């Protein structure tokens, strides 16, 4: 289905500089995934809500790419931040070097809240499209930049507004009294159709708030939905979506890692499939994970079943522990691998952060349906 080639790509909705892929395993993997996405986006130009790609991505000769010094890039970003009156927000899943220069780092909930406290006129959101959209929705008067407009989310993509509206209409026509609860990983167009927005941190509390006589339609993550059914004892209608990163963890990978580290503690994100959650010692979203490892003083080894960049904030917050990504060890070499990297988050690079500050684009534009999404987002996450 996909071509795997080593190439260099330019584009991404306005970024003017080429994206360089080096020779490391992770760079090569990112390059391969980017090619998959290139074909995906070029074949379906209107994939992201409110985003029409006017020009297809181009594949260019890698010899034209100039490698830039990360430290020089960081200095340049600092200067541009001043010049452009900007604040940088970074999700825990973007590269550690971006987290290091960010003013705020956190999970989706924390960053949505942080965005409302920003005093500068510009927000650079180093994360994925739905997160930057939320920042714009909550701060309509600010300019919100996303370093790469093609940083989408497979989970958000799995639930489109039209099919959701159709399902809601059919359920209501059949006499079902439904409340739609959406995980924050959804587009603003989908959020505008929902009654509640949840994150992995507050999902349980909100699901428990819904009156018993109502049926819950939970979108888009079936794994998180199933986990919530288990912890709340509440049956729900589950949308069949999932995250491409958390879907790839196999029980076998985890068992192999556990065998290599018999004393280790398994911590997993609730977006992981049920068979992974069943063998985990602790289940929680990224912020909950961070707080959990910080609460343990004695040095431990944690096997981390979520996006691999999460190791950076965990190690920074609790340096006494060792953190091993799952799947984390290549049997052949014993080296860690990056196959649990989110290709969308990996689209964020220092170079693109610099470029979006320099050129003032790509920018999230206000859409009509943001007003409805704002109402539900504010009610769910900020009160
Ligand atoms: S890790 Fe999964 S849920 Fe998170 S942004 Fe990437 S694709 Fe979306």
Helicity, as a percent range: 40-55%
* Domain tally: 4
CATH architecture field of the largest domain:
3-Layer(aba) Sandwich
Distance between the termini: 45 Å
Q: What small molecules does the structure contain? A: iron/sulfur cluster
CATH superfamily of the largest domain: NadA-like
| Main beta sheet strand tally, sense and closure | 4 strands, parallel
> How do the strands line up in the largest sheet?
4-3-5-6
Mean pLDDT: 82
Number of helical regions: 17
Number of strands: 14
Instruction: Show unreliable segments.
Output: 1-62, 328-336
Q: What fraction of residues sit in β-strands?
A: 5-15%
What would the principal axes of the Cα set say about the shape? globular
Structural class: alpha/beta
- CATH fold assignment of the largest domain: Rossmann fold
EC number: 2.5.1.72
GO molecular function, one term: metal ion binding
Pfam family, one: NadA
Protein name: Quinolinate synthase
Walk me through what this model shows.
- The protein is of the alpha/beta class and 383 residues long.
- The protein folds into 4 domains: 8-66, no CATH class; 70-154 and 347-359, 3-Layer(aba) Sandwich (Rossmann fold); 156-244, 3-Layer(aba) Sandwich (Rossmann fold); 249-325, Rossmann fold (3-Layer(aba) Sandwich).
- Helix content is 40%, strand content 14%.
- It is built from 17 helices and 14 strands.
- It has a 4-stranded parallel β-sheet with strand order 4-3-5-6, with helices on both faces. Strands 8-7-9-10 form a 4-stranded parallel β-sheet, with helices on both faces. Strands 12-11-13-14 form a 4-stranded parallel β-sheet, with helices on both faces.
- The longest helix is centred in the first third of the chain and has 19 residues, at 25-43.
- Residues 1-62 and 328-336 have low confidence and may be disordered.
- The structure holds iron/sulfur cluster.
- Iron/sulfur cluster is lined by residues 93, 128, 153-155, 185, 243-245, 307, 342, 344-345.
